[in-house]
Amino acid sequence: MRKPELPANIAHESRGSAQPMGAMNYLASSGQLRASLLRWSLFTVPLVVALGFLAGQASGSGPGNPWFDGLVKPTIYPPPAAFGIVWSILYVLMGIALAMVLSARGAAGRGLAAAAFVVQLLLNLSWSPTFFALHQITGAFWITVAMAVAIVVTIALFWRIRPVAGALMLPYLAWVCFAAVLTWQFLQLNPAADGAFAPASTVRVEI
Known about the structure:
Layout: H1 8-24, H2 30-59, H3 66-69, H4 80-102, H5 110-133, H6 137-161, H7 163-168, H8 170-189, H9 200-203
Helix pairs in contact: 2-4, 2-5, 5-6, 6-8
């Protein structure tokens, strides 16, 4: 026996109404999204800030390092206190940007974006030991160049997932580009200090 058929308009509405119900199972409310971002931020922000702080402290960065104190400083060298303030702000922005990407569950390219962030962060953390502990000014300069490239890639990947996350990384990119110029000028003013482990008084260069 032939089954009775529903009118075309009723059948179409039945099929159409079933799809959103299934899709709703995969959608999070705005409150859930904010809660997820907050949870990730409470993890990523302290982690990034702590890693940056520990890398600098373990390397003896900044004033008080005899080798560094003996270097001729470029004219664009900022006041020493500025570095701690700027890097603290940048690390917080980086942690928030990463949290925004990690909280975007199911977003295409999320894992790749997180991996790119880790790569640039590892380069970041390697700069202080290279410059302040190993006294490798040339090596530190090339690290800043690699950092800039890695940050550009990270920004592009973040932007596809969360444009705001990509935008939060832009001040970081600008500062790293400045750091590259600053490191290059340190090298030009102190060629004999590159890789030197002699007392500060013997590595100062007269210009």
